[in-house]
């Protein structure tokens, strides 16, 4: 090839890469969310896990990891992974390909088993990833879970031998961090979950944002102000109409006494907290998507939390007017 043609080829390659990157940035407006696990405890195989990436950019993170591989398999069966193109020489299943090449990192809100069991179980065949969490969470994961006794130490800290598959990345509360190999930034906020510190993650891509909450109680019940601090932090995004949606728990119905919520929300408390966000932002939340996560199943014959909790939320939502969504495993949503 002549020097001129070689130069022309290089220029065309660079132009193509720049064009592709620009196109992806232009398409990335809002968030693509796939529910790998929807419920909160009791039912193994459908526990909190949400795969999230900017629309138009398939590089995803997993917010919590209660159920991973089974959730990917259900999502595949429901068609949520249909736009994942497998290479011609791929030897993996589509769920396996997404696990190894689509999910770039884990964001873990706290180390309770219904939020990390899938991470543990999938780790023998996972690809190298970072685990982003508050220091209180990475300490428990490395000391009490991936410790060589409960499970092999797949991390890069903790008791030897360290296999180094996972890199623990501590997050500082309130400090935004760019998530490597993704188009996302994250800011972590501590939550009160009974005696345990949990986490809310503010995810941002360009000017768009969404909130993901791990387990949390209401400020009034937890005798704190952690939720109010988050409402103050995101109020400018609400006023600018850049907060695209919220994933937040509602574990029990309103018959549950406050003294037995154990660091969780019920419909009346969720509605009060969303009203507090609206009041703080001085902007109506009407139409805001709110995905109601972590509903706990009941073993009582006369109880139906999946019917009662949404009904109680609808009853109290007449003035607020948010768009409550009850997730199902394998569901895929786009928030623009």
UniProtKB/TrEMBL annotation:
Keyword Signal among record annotations? yes
Which family does the similarity line name? Belongs to the cyclic nucleotide phosphodiesterase class-II family.
- GO MF annotations, alphabetized: 3',5'-cyclic-AMP phosphodiesterase activity; 3',5'-cyclic-GMP phosphodiesterase activity
Which residues, if any, are the signal sequence? 1-28
Kindly give the Pfam families that the UniProt entry links to this protein. Answer: PDEase_II
* Designated name of the protein: 3',5'-cyclic-nucleotide phosphodiesterase
Q: Which CDD domains does the entry mention?
A: class_II_PDE_MBL-fold
Recall the taxonomic lineage recorded for the source organism: Bacteria, Pseudomonadati, Pseudomonadota, Alphaproteobacteria, Acetobacterales
Species of origin reads Komagataeibacter oboediens
**Sorted UniProt keywords:** cAMP, Hydrolase, Signal
Q: Which GO terms describe its biological process?
A: cAMP catabolic process; negative regulation of glucose mediated signaling pathway
């Amino acid at each position: 090839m002549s020097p001129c043609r070689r130069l022309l080829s290089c220029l065309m390659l660079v132009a193509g890469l720049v064009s592709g990157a620009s196109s992806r940035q232009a398409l990335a407006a809002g968030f693509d969310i796939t529910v790998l696990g929807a419920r909160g405890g009791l039912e193994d195989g459908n526990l909190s896990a949400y795969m999230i990436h900017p629309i138009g950019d398939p590089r995803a993170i997993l917010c919590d990891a209660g159920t991973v591989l089974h959730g990917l398999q259900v999502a595949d069966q429901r068609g949520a992974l249909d736009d994942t193109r497998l290479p011609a020489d791929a030897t993996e299943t589509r769920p396996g390909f997404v696990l190894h090449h689509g999910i770039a990192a884990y964001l873990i809100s706290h180390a309770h088993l219904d939020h990390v069991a899938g991470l543990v179980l999938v780790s023998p065949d996972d690809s190298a990833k970072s685990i982003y969490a508050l220091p209180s969470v990475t300490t428990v994961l490395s000391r009490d879970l991936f410790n060589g006794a409960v499970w092999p130490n797949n991390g890069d800290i903790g008791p030897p031998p360290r296999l180094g598959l996972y890199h623990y990345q501590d997050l500082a509360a309130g400090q935004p961090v760019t998530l490597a190999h993704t188009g996302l930034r994250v800011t972590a906020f501590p939550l009160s979950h009974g005696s345990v510190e949990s986490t809310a993650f503010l995810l941002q891509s360009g000017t768009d944002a969404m909130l993901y909450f791990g387990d949390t109680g209401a400020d009034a019940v937890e005798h704190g102000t952690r939720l109010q601090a988050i409402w103050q932090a995101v109020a400018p995004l609400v006023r600018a109409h850049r907060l695209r949606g919220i994933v937040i728990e509602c574990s029990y119905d309103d018959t549950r006494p406050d003294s037995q919520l154990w660091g969780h929300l019920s419909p009346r408390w969720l509605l009060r907290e969303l009203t507090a966000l609206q009041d703080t932002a001085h902007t109506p939340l009407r139409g805001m998507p709110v995905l109601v996560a972590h509903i706990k199943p009941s073993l009582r014959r006369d109880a139906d939390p999946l019917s009662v909790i949404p009904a109680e939320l609808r009853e109290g939502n007449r003035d607020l007017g948010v768009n409550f969504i009850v997730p199902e495993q394998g569901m895929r949503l786009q928030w623009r």
